[in-house]
């Protein structure tokens, strides 16, 4: 569980930045070279590479180098961590609101 939490924490940290979220969104359309991705953002290539390294170190993207071109690919399985966590939180809160609704609407249960 601790490893799961560390991975989830890393994914949330990586997704906390709007540039990195935009990169993830862009890579959802397919693999793209770092150069093509970087052109879409108003920053230097070294600054952009920090975002790429953060996404890669947290498992959200993979990069493959072919000659002088580094291509980024979205790791959709890593996004499933967030989806699973959100689904678990949704189940917990729905169960709580269901119990509250039952408590409020069923007077016989309240006695």
In words, what does this structure look like?
Pfam families: HTH_20. The chain has helices spanning 2-15, 18-27, 34-39, 45-57, 76-105, and strands at residues 32-33, 61-66, 69-74. By secondary structure, the chain is α+β, with helices and mostly antiparallel strands. The protein has a 3-stranded antiparallel sheet with strand order 1-3-2. A hairpin with a 2-residue loop joins strand 2 and strand 3 (69-74).
Blueprint (SSEs and pairs):
Blueprint lengths: L1 H14 L2 H10 L4 E2 H6 L5 H13 L3 E6 L2 E6 L1 H30 L6
Antiparallel strand pairs: 1-3, 2-3
Helix pairs in contact: 1-5
Pfam families: HTH_20
GO molecular function: DNA binding
Organism: Nonomuraea angiospora
Index terms:
111 residues; alpha+beta; three-stranded antiparallel β-sheet; 5 helices; 66% helix; elongated
Gyration radius, rounded:
20 Å
Order of helices and strands: HHEHHEEH
Number of strands: 3
User: In DSSP terms, counting alpha (H) and pi (I) runs of 4 or more, how many helices?
Assistant: 5
Describe the sheet with the most strands: 3 strands, antiparallel
Rounded to the nearest angstrom, the distance between the terminal CA atoms is 40 Å
Short description:
One of its GO terms (molecular function) is DNA binding. The chain has 111 residues and is an alpha+beta fold.
């Amino acid at each position: 569980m601790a490893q799961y939490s560390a991975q989830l924490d890393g994914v949330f940290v990586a997704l906390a930045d709007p540039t990195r979220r935009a990169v993830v969104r862009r890579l959802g359309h397919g693999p793209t070279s770092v150069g093509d991705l970087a052109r879409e953002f108003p920053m230097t290539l070294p600054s952009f590479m920090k975002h790429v390294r953060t996404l890669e170190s947290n498992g959200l993207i993979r990069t493959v180098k072919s000659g002088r071109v580094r291509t980024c690919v979205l790791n959709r399985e890593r996004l499933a961590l967030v989806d699973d966590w959100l689904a678990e939180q949704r189940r917990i809160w729905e169960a709580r609101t269901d119990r509250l609704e039952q408590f409020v609407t069923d007077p016989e249960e309240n006695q």
